[in-house]
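for the writeup, i need someone to sanity check this before i put it in the appendix. the sequnce is what the collaborator sent (i think, or maybe the updated version? ugh). structure was predicted straight from it, no edits. if anything looks off just tell me and ill rerun, i have time this weekend
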Amino acid sequence: MRSLPYPKTARPSPQKSAGASRSARPVTHRDPKTSTKVTKYAAKSAAERRVSEFLAALRTQRNASEHTINAYKKDLQKFVSYAGKGLDWRRIDHLTIRGFLSEVLGSGLSKASTARALASLRSFYKWLGREGHVGQNPAALVSTPKLPKKLPRVPTMEEVNGLLDANLPENAAFPARDRVIFELLYGCGLRNSELVGIQLDDIGWSNEVIRVRGKGKKERLVPLGDAAAAAIREYLPERQRIIDAKRRSCAALLINLRAGSLTTRSVGRIVKAIAVARGLSPDVHPHTLRHAFGTHMLEEGADLRAIQELLGHERLSTTQRYTQLTSNHITRVYDATHPRAK
């Protein structure tokens, strides 16, 4: 039986809170006039309303992405379900939170998911404190589970150049567009969400830059390399032919064969399929090319601060991960080539 980082605690008994209404749940009854089933939803409890207000604040005040908001929503809904009816956020203590995390981990979720659930509760309680709803943050008293330090496997410069310089494999449904995907992910170090968010008017042809919208809707300008620019120019006429044939309008740079905007999931499938067909590892995904961008620039002598700006990292410590990747690469080269290492 594996050990847990948090001790099992008894599930808290339902708390009574004055004025708290029933928790939101579907209630089904049959309409006497039409004999059809009608489903209504009970009103949200006071605790659930606080969660909804917090999620709205994330969207309006912090410009959080929908992905972030959905992640926070799932975590907080799990905690509301765990705490039971009559939940009063002021009466929750750190032992209750530790019990919740123990249950999350015991349900089969990873330590990373458990750490994210704790981060969601910490952020939520910080907001409750700023709004004057609670006097303390019990989640701050709970330590984050230690996560294994896994460095992503980054393809070599030779592997990436071999992929980009060769003709795309036969499984490429839209070769001109797919080449743009690879050139922008690796040539500009973009996130998948940033890539699909590029619009036609974000490309500055005169000064050879692309306007990119990163996390928190923060914008930055990224240099547009010659190879990426050439790939876009080759792709644009084919893009226009699809737009004309489907008689649709689309502001996004990358479109599918139905003239709609390309999604992050589609980009992931395209990158994996083409990379595997070219002999790369099956664990390659769009973020792998972003890691390769930062690692290869550092290996070629780029300044860490410059890489931070290009990648749109808020903290330099995030960019410093690439120094670890480079150190590992140097160690491998030494072990493989130096006569005294054998």
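Residues 7-25, 37-42 have pLDDT under 50 and may be disordered. The chain has two domains: 26-141, 157-341.
thx in advance!!
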